[in-house]
Amino acid sequence: EAGVTQSPTHLIKTRGQQATLRCSPISGHTSVYWYQQALGLGLQFLLWYDEGEERNRGNFPPRFSGRQFPNYSSELNVNALELEDSALYLCASSPGTSTTNEKLFFGSGTQLSVL
Amino acid sequence: QKEVEQDPGPLSVPEGAIVSLNCTYSNSAFQYFMWYRQYSRKGPELLMYTYSSGNKEDGRFTAQVDKSSKYISLFIRDSQPSDSATYLCAMRGGAAGNKLTFGGGTRVLVKP
Questions:
Q1: Is omega for the bond preceding B14 within 30 degrees of 0, making it cis?
Q2: For residues A50 and A29, is the Cβ–Cβ distance under 8 A?
Q3: Are residues A103 and B34, on separate chains, in Cβ contact within 8 Å?
Q4: Distance (Å, rounded) from C-alpha A86 to C-alpha A111?
């Protein structure tokens, strides 16, 4: 069974540009989560989507946005990139809010470098 | 103060030793507790998942949760060089729903 897949693996942008990161959840999973892992800061929660709806949002500015498609894949968009946006962006999936035993499974991440 | 505290290490042990890791937390609403292992440049991998207080064992790994003290632990027996990684505790519950709150991670090095 395929795990969570993320693309691209690496992304290099310059300040002010926009970045688009993509995530495909495990087959059958309807929930997708995005986390930012910056050096020295640990994993910070960004966004949670379930059944195409945004369910929760972390303490990040509005230039961080995303969406979930009907096939449950997801996109994270970061506008007006800043140097401090350089980080590993991790996507995770879980079966969905209808279950009581939600376990998150992570992809390998997209390393975003802002120059 | 962070919601979940975890010593960053590094923790260096000889092969075969017991690795002891722990996290403390402040939010009494947390009910589900997890340990993830993360190798360099990879995503976190779920190791252990426990609900409420108590112990759980899985092979060489034992997870303990003490909700009264807001303290969780992970023990790795007979440690191997392949156990060298960063270990992250994570937890959720209450109003946070399915959102996980992570500790900062402890880097572990098992020397042959």
A1: no
A2: no
A3: yes
A4: 8
CB contact B99 to A (< 8 Å): yes
What's the rounded Cα separation, in Å, for the pair A33 and A25? 10
CA distance A39 to B8: 12
Q: What is the pLDDT of residues B29-59, one digit of tens each?
A: 898 999 999 998 889 999 999 988 889 999 9
> Which one, of A55, A58, A54, lies nearest residue A45 by Cα?
A58
- Please give the Cα distance from B108 to A62 (Å, whole number): 36
Q: Would you say B48 and B64 are in contact if contact means Cβ atoms under 8 Å apart?
A: no
Which tokens belong to A21?
């990161």
Site of tokens 């064992």: B57
In this complex, is the C-beta atom of A46 within 8 Å of any C-beta atom belonging to chain B?
no
Q: Are strands B85-92 and B101-102 parallel, antiparallel or unpaired?
A: antiparallel
Q: What are the tens digits of pLDDT across the range A10-44?
A: 999 999 999 999 999 999 999 999 999 998 778 99
Say whether residue B102 is in contact with chain A using an 8 A CB cutoff: yes
Helices and strands in chain A: count of H runs, count of E runs: 0, 11
Which structure tokens are listed for B95?
A: 């109003």
